[in-house]
């Protein structure tokens, strides 16, 4: 995600600054970049976990660095920190259930 296009991406997602900061934190933590189409399709933590895992699987030089369980744990922790929510399911919607908007 590119910072200079954050306004366009937040409109696509229906997310405000919280959503942009969440995506940026995830990208930084895992060293991946989610493109506009990927970001636009993210509706739940499960979607975000799957998108990051797909990116990590494609990086053969990072093989073994992350497990799916660890990716899920770290993303859930980032969501807690960025959004200030403690209790949520992986199927909770970012905008409707987690208050990103």
From TrEMBL:
The gene coding this protein: acpP_2
Pfam family, one: PP-binding
Organism: Rubritalea halochordaticola
Domain Carrier: 1-56
InterPro entries in alphabetical order: ACP-like_sf, PP-bd_ACP
Annotated protein name in UniProt: Acyl carrier protein
């Amino acid at each position: 995600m590119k910072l200079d296009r954050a306004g366009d991406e937040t409109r696509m997602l229906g997310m405000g600054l919280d959503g942009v900061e969440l995506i940026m934190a995830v990208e930084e933590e895992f060293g991946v970049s989610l493109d506009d189409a990927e970001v636009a399709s993210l509706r739940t933590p499960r979607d975000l976990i799957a998108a990051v895992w797909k990116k990590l699987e494609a990086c053969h030089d990072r093989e073994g660095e992350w497990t799916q369980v660890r990716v899920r744990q770290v993303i859930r922790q980032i969501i807690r920190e960025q959004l200030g929510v403690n209790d949520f399911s992986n199927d909770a919607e970012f905008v409707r259930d987690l208050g990103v908007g």
